[in-house]
Amino acid sequence: MRRVTNFSAGPSTLPYSVLKKAQAEFTSYQNTGLSILEMSHRSKHFEEILFDTKQLLQKLMNIPNNYQVLFLQGGASLQFSMVPLNLFHRTNHAYYAHTGTWSEKAIQEARKMGEVTMISSSEDKAFTYIPPIHLPNHPSADYIHITTNNTIEGTRYDTIPNEFDIPLVADMSSNILSEVYDVTKFGLIYAGAQKNIGPAGLTIVIIRDDLIGKAPQNCPTMLDYSTYVKTKSLYNTPPTFSIYMTKLVLEWLQKQGGVEGIEKVNKEKARLLYSFLDHSPLFHSKVEPKFRSIMNIPFTTYNAELDQLFIQTALEHDFLELQGHRSTGGMRASLYNAMSIESVRKLVDFMKLFEQSYLLEGNYVSNKDL
Ligand SMILES: *Cc1c(COP(=O)(O)O)cnc(C)c1O
Fold first, then answer.
1. Would you name the residues annotated as active-site residues?
2. Which residues contact 169 (CB under 8 A, 6 or more apart)?
3. Which domain of life is it from (predicted)?
4. Probe ligand 1: pick from 96, 151, 157, 197, max atoms within 8 Å of CB?
5. Annotated binding site for pyridoxal 5'-phosphate: which residue ranges?
6. Running DSSP on this structure, what letter comes out for residue 359?
């Protein structure tokens, strides 16, 4: 059966063993005679899946008891609105770090609900680094918002700023579970599942107890975190199949040695690609080494036509979705947890070949030479 190497930024590649397991259970889950897709979200089987998924996540991320794990929908994008809606309660003011396209969207949404101060920005250098956070002398805000990994620009916080008395909120959509984080540094963490957790449709929120129940009286029930706390994420029908798939992915992750184990693999994958880029006469990374993402790695030849030729040639060799985001151009390889070291080695070997033929031929690589 044909399987390509999929470098998509999201929805992204899933472990093959997880797909096979889901396939085997697809028409009759654990001999129940029905598929998860057909099963009531209030059935014993599904409630068990939901419980197990939550427990696995708590264990993998070492989430303390004073945090709640919520299963929501609407993607990380809905969290851009739910975070200010639920957390604005005292000052109606928040601090945001502006580190790329996604933080920009988060800021736009928060501004609809209160005052936003941009406490740092890397816009001056096209978001190729992570700017330090400087709070004013007498800081006053309901929360600070950062994006731990900037999916489009390929940057990541190398350390988490946590010397503040104000709750830290993190959009962790593209690097949750990729490396060990100390959850206690955060007041709230959110992530869309389709990058590093499972399929699209599920959004995970990890929220500290003291931040629950602050939403205004007129907050719609479905947008209030406390609704999901009170009902154990079963106020209405959750994305049942996405949750089931997430459970399988988390079980797989546990077998990889958990987050500690996968972090080592992820760092080795990133090292392989960056060290090639740093020595390549053709391909380059624009991101400051200290702030380079280990999940999303943008690169370019600085020649739009050649970039296109590379993407096209790669596609013909079953390397999928290597084009950069439509806003940045160039290339991007997303190396989420489910991407194997072998696949990254294959990509680097292919890039070497492309480079050699390009340098030999001057300016043209014909497909048959590769
Ligand atoms: C993909 C992404 C989003 C948007 O996620 P949706 O689930 O599509 O809403 C937000 N933030 C970051 C960092 C992302 O990578």
1. 102, 171, 195
2. 83, 87, 143, 144, 145, 146, 186, 187, 188, 189, 190
3. Bacteria
4. 151
5. 76-77, 102, 151, 171, 194, 236-237
6. H
- Tell me the domains of the chain and their CATH numbers: 16-255 (3.40.640.10), 257-369 (3.90.1150.10)
Name which residue sits closest to atom 8 of ligand 1, judged by CA.
Answer: 75
Would you say the pTM of this structure is higher than 0.70?
yes
What pLDDT does residue 298 have? 98
Give the whole-angstrom CA distance, residue 169 versus residue 145: 5
Closest CA to 153 of 279, 348, 23, 325: 325
Q: Tens digits of per-residue pLDDT, 193-225?
A: 999 999 999 999 999 999 999 999 999 999 999
Query: From residue 20, how far is each of 3, 240, 327, 340 by CA, in Å?
Result: 13, 18, 35, 17
Residues of the chain with pLDDT under 50: 365-369
Å from CA of 201 to ligand 1 middle: 12
The response to whether residue 147 sits with its C-beta less than 6 Å from ligand 1 reads yes
Closest residue to atom 12 of ligand 1, CA basis: 173
| Phi–psi pair at 187, nearest 5 degrees | -90, -35
